[in-house]
Design goal:
Layout: H1 2-8, E1 14-18, H2 26-41, E2 45-49, H3 53-59, E3 62-67, E4 70-76, H4 77-82, H5 84-90
Parallel strand pairs: 1-2
Antiparallel strand pairs: 3-4
């Protein structure tokens, strides 16, 4: 959260986040994603790289799915959450 706060001091139009939930307790992960959602609502564009696929897709408008560094799927995030392949491979069934 400190890193996000520092980045916001420069009033960016684009915020790039790489694994913001990595190593955090589940309660804190929820708080971080709430903050990201609020920033999005304030009009900041966010480029999010995240292994927690469900959390990332819930707050995203559009998503790319990478496997071994290659894009294997892309679509509106809501469509990907509902996709059977995505659910089985990345969201735990």
């Amino acid at each position: 959260m400190l890193a996000i706060s520092r980045a916001l001091m420069s009033e960016p139009r684009l915020l790039m986040l790489d694994e913001p939930s990595l190593g955090l307790a589940p309660k804190i992960v929820g708080e971080v994603f709430e903050i990201i959602t609020k920033l999005k609502e304030e009009g900041i564009t966010i480029l999010l790289v995240e292994q927690n696929a469900f959390a990332a897709l819930r707050i995203s408008d559009y998503a790319y799915v990478l496997e071994n560094g290659k894009i294997v799927m892309e679509d509106v995030a809501k469509n990907l959450i509902g996709d059977d392949t995505i659910r089985q491979k990345y969201l735990g069934g």
